């Protein structure tokens, strides 16, 4: 199975973000068709204030029913290209809160998975900028998997990568590929992004696909915020097999299940756990 991760530089303009996503996906799939294409975290609206985030968020429909502009855009990509689409994540309206939510579509445009980010990013980065995701978003509580082209996918989002117990739980559900869309900050990403992805891949002996945001956006206080980018695909031995360059773009790789099976057979760490 071939997976393509799309790297975007989104801002607070939802329509412009959808147009950017469309251009990048069309270019990526024209250059190399894929069985699964994936977008970054919160690509529909990155930055802006609380009102901006709520205005850009969507009420996610019951599967099979029509949704908002971003939801229908993702569904349309799946059907027009006959591919699976992992929609990164978007703001999901839920009363006076949002959820940071991933949706996955099959080539018929049917939603096959929905995951709400469990771990919320409330921290002060090394550059002194504060992030308080829980001020706007609620936390998910469900571990989510789905099947794509014969492979079992586990779903996670960005800050989740710092909590290995989630990935152990996914490994115990026998996933083959973990999807981790992100908007990692530049300050943390330059030191931790690749290290964490490779560590989680090595621990779980699982493929990782991590589409990420890159570039600069303006947050609620008017300050510029910088995301790290460096979208990548990591194999179960911890090797980075595909990586996006600086700026918007994409990276693509074939996911080899037999290679993963050999690693797990030769080093059965799950069976060795005490």
Provide an overview of this structure:
There is one protein chain. By secondary structure, this protein is of the alpha/beta class. The protein has a single domain, classed as Carbon-nitrogen hydrolase (Nitrilase/N-carbamoyl-D-aminoacid amidohydrolase), CATH 3.60.110.10. The protein is 29% helix and 29% strand. The chain is built from 7 helices and 18 strands. It has helices spanning 14-31, 50-56, 69-81, 164-172, 186-204, 257-266, 269-272, and strands at 2-7, 36-38, 84-86, 90-94, 97-105, 111-116, 122-124, 130-132, 137-138, 145-148, 151-155, 177-179, 207-210, 214-218, 224-228, 232-234, 240-243, 249-254. Strands 1, 2, 3, 4, 5, 6, 9 and 18 form an 8-stranded mixed β-sheet that branches. The protein has a 6-stranded mixed β-sheet with strand order 10-11-12-13-16-17, with helices on one face. It has a two-stranded antiparallel sheet with strand order 7-8. Helix 1 (14-31) runs parallel beside helix 3. The chain is globular and about 50 Å long. The relative contact order is 0.16. The mean pLDDT is 96.
């Amino acid at each position: 199975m071939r997976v393509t991760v799309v790297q975007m530089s989104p801002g607070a303009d939802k329509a412009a973000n959808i147009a950017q996503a469309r251009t990048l996906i069309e270019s990526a799939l024209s250059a190399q068709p894929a069985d699964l294409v994936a977008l970054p975290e919160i690509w529909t609206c990155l930055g802006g204030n609380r009102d901006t985030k709520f205005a850009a968020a969507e009420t996610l429909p019951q599967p099979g029913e029509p949704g908002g502009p971003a939801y229908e855009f993702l569904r349309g990509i799946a059907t027009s290209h006959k591919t699976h689409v992992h929609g990164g994540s978007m703001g999901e309206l839920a009363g006076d809160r949002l959820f940071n939510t991933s949706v996955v579509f099959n080539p018929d445009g049917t939603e096959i998975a929905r995951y709400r980010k469990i771990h919320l990013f409330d921290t002060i980065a090394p550059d002194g900028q504060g992030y308080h995701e829980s001020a706007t978003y609620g936390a998910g509580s469900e571990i989510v998997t789905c099947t794509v082209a014969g492979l079992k996918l586990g779903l996670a989002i960005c800050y989740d990568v710092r909590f290995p117990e989630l990935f152990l739980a996914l490994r115990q559900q026998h996933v083959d590929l973990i999807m981790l869309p992100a908007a990692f900050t530049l300050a943390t990403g330059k030191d931790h992004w690749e290290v964490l992805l490779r560590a989680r891949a090595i621990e779980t002996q699982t493929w990782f696909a991590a589409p990420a945001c890159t570039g600069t956006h303006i947050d609620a206080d008017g300050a510029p915020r910088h995301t790290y980018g460096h979208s990548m695909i990591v194999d179960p031995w911890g090797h980075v097999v595909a990586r996006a360059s600086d700026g918007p773009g994409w990276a693509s790789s074939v996911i080899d299940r037999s290679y993963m099976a050999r690693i797990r057979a030769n080093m059965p760490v799950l069976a060795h756990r005490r």
